[in-house]
Amino acid sequence: MIDQLSPSPDSKEYNFYFGPAHAGSGNFGVKLIIEGEKVVRARSDPGYLHRGFEKLMEYRMPLQNAVLSDRICILESLNWNLIHAEAVDELMNIEVPERARYIRVIMAELSRIQSHIIWFGVFSKATGFDTGFKVAFGYRDYILDLFEMITGGRVYPAGYICPGGVRRDLPENAPDRIRKVLNKMDEMIDLEQLENSTLHSRTKGIGVLKLEDAIRLGATGPVIRGSGMRTDVRKDDPYEVYDRFDFDVPVRKEGDAYARYQIGIEELRESVKIIKQALKDLPDGDAIAPEFKKPRLNAKIPEGEVYIRNEISRGEAGMYMVSDGGTNPYRVKIRGPSFLHMIPVLEYLFKGVQIADVPAIYWSLNICPADLDR
Amino acid sequence: MDMGLIPTLFKNFFSKPMTVSFPDESIPIPNGYRGEHQYDIDKCISCGLCSRICPNRAIEMVEAPEALKDDYPKRYPKIDIGKCCFCGLCQDICPTNALTLGKNVFLSTFDSSTVIKYPITKKEE
Amino acid sequence: MASKVESILKKIDSRFDVEVKVKRDNEAWLSIDNENLIDICGSLKDKGFVHLSAISVVDWIKEGKYEVIYHLWSYKDKMLLNLKTRIDREKPAIDSVIPIWDSNAQIHEREMHELFGLKFRGNPDLAPLFLEDWNGPPTFRKDFDWRKYVRENYYDKNNEREAAYYD
Fold first, then answer.
1. Which of A162, A204, A317, A367 is 20 to 30 Å from A291 at the Cα level?
2. Under a CB-based contact definition with an 8 Å cutoff, are residues C56 and A214 in contact?
3. What span, in angstroms and rounded, lies between the C-alpha atoms of C142 and A208?
4. Are residues C116 and C137 in contact, defined by beta-carbon separation less than 8 angstroms?
């Protein structure tokens, strides 16, 4: 039965659109049917940001696709660059040099830290902890200055992680500046836990997701770690050089919004640990495979297919690429974690809650509308 | 953190402000930033590679205006700043480094005729 | 270890007609027949493949077939299996896997129905997901000429800057 989108007659229910052009919900709309102060049913309404990436990528070469891939979700652009570069590397059998692998891990972890900082900032603001918003966006600026020095742009890295390696080598003073920024991150985590009572009372016990439901609805990443399952693609199925580093995977059993918030803070600490270890072991050498130093037009991709899974900050991302021997891919399918979190999980969690809990649950799932619509 | 009012006032009075007064001074932009294009026509060999690699088709090879056709017989790139995404692939592929990206970021304008950059303008001799 | 993948594959192999390609020590690609889909998926879920990562569809227009691929992950054994099956392109229809993987499968099938026109028998909710008021053919098929559609409906001949995109 399709969900009834209109209130039933002879009842006190009414429509409420938590809408797409609204500052409280990002670029995504949810239709709620409310009775009094309680939500009875919810139905997601995606499609506001549909740009057709899967079709656009069929008409461009892999290097041009790398520039396109950071717009899949701009808030964690380098992680999406990485998954696209890994898919093309495996199809074309390219051997990526060691130094390039370490630089890729450093940039991906910096992008994950930056994405979690945005998550805290917006989550704190939605639940009333306004100082947290200002602290978070102030400290995010240090990471944007690092991106400007290394890749040439503050928010759009323009395919920095490309098939074959990385587009430019790190500048001379980069490792020292990265270490200074990491010290500032440690300072920020202590400030972010400064005032806990508002956040605590608005999120403890709200939006509980049990483990069987999480598996049945397809949740991945921090959402399923908050419900008790210890899983992380970087540990279970390591890619790049993640198997050489020593880091923990934080897990909680309660499954409510406060547990997911705490997991976010602990993951930020683990990312700082990974970058410190990578900077210590950074080897010398080339930053890109020798045959890709100058961009190549009309390089053919051999026939084949590949499915790559990565762990981005919102969950598990997947990319399936098929090639039939031409210069462009034949079909690209992108699996975003928010596709599952925003439609089945959200509609399940919104049944029977009060209106005041709607922002707390919505932002605790760490969703990105761009990832859903692609 | 727990200082009183007078010591805090004193400390902030003598330290440097966090902001800069914009049109007179600005925050320095590092080298390697991807800003507006700079084109040197004497180094260009008209290979057309920049036009073929642009992901948004922002570069088109055009001929010189009539009066200057003797000095510049071949085709040269015309760049549409409105379509450009400033990715820098044209800079990486140019074999003679004729096309580079500089540091100018102040490109907003009310005049739509400045959005398309021609390689040769009539004023050049 | 190749033995781990092969030991799981041996348990399915004997009953059904399966073609196997092993890629790394924890990844394998299987090609199966359309009719055995529900039985094989049910037996794989009992062996620990509880997570359906994605359902993808590829349109092979020259051979006249759609290829449907199910990507499965097992948390217990840490293994990735990809099941491929082919169906006819003119009237595409396949059984839904909702009885096995519940809401996770339902949303993936809804998206593939909208983009490729593929009917899933047994899916209760196949309403459009992204497009609103769309009357044309399903948009990701290779015989839908989107350039012609855009040129007829949206090309503004008076604007000289748009010419580069439509030629």
1. A317
2. no
3. 44
4. no
Separation between Cα atoms, residue A260 and residue A36, nearest integer Å: 29
Question: Confidence class of residue C1 from pLDDT cuts 50, 70 and 90?
Answer: very low
Higher pLDDT pick, A195 / C25: C25
Token pair listed for A300: 């053919």
pLDDT band for position A78 (cuts 50, 70, 90): very high
Q: Which amino acid is at A256?
A: D
Helices (H) and strands (E) in chain C, counts: 4, 7
In B42-101, the residues whose Cβ lies within 8 Å of chain C are 57-58, 60, 80, 82-83
Which CATH number applies to A50-373?
1.10.645.10
Cα gap C54→C39, rounded to integer Å: 19
Q: What is the DSSP letter of A288?
A: B
Best mutation target, A93, A209, A234, A340, to test chain C (most C CBs within 10 A): A340
Q: Which residues of A touch C140 (CB under 8 A)?
A: 54-55
The count of CB pairs under 8 A between chains B and C is 10
Q: Mean pLDDT throughout C65-79?
A: 89
Instruction: Write out the H or E segment, with its range, that includes residue A323.
Output: strand A315-323
The DSSP code for A358 is H
Cβ(A26)–Cβ(A330) under 8 Å? Answer: no
Structural tokens at position A218: 């397809």
pLDDT value at residue A374: 82
How far apart, in Å, are the Cα atoms of C93 and each of C56, C100, C113, C137? 15, 18, 10, 16
Q: Which three-class secondary structure state does DSSP give residue B29?
A: coil
Contact B85 A171 (CB under 8 A): no
CATH 3.30.70.3270 assigned to B26-117: yes
Q: Which residue has the higher pLDDT, B26 or A79?
A: A79
In the structure encoding, which two tokens stand for residue C14, read together?
């004997």
Residue C104 has its nearest CB partner, among A216, A322, A373, at: A216
pLDDT digits (tens, 9 = 90+) for A277-309: 999 989 988 888 888 888 888 888 999 999 999
pLDDT for residue C10: 66
Please report, for residues A83, A165, A166, A292, B122, the alpha-carbon distance to residue A95 in angstroms, rounded to integers and kept in the order given: 16, 9, 13, 11, 50
Q: What is the ipTM of this complex?
A: 0.88
What are the residue ranges in chain B where pLDDT is below 70? Answer: 1-3, 122-125
- Quick check: helix, strand or coil at residue A313? coil
The chains in contact with chain A, meaning 3 or more Cβ pairs closer than 8 Å, are B, C
Quick one: pLDDT at residue A334?
Answer: 92
Residue C86 near residue C57 (C-beta atoms within 8 A): no
Q: How far apart are CA C15 and CA C13, in angstroms?
A: 6
**DSSP codes, A41-74:** EEEEE--TT---HHHHGGGS-HHHHHHHHTTSSG
Q: Which residues of C touch B80 (CB under 8 A)?
A: 161, 164
Domains of chain C are 2-165 (3.30.460.80)
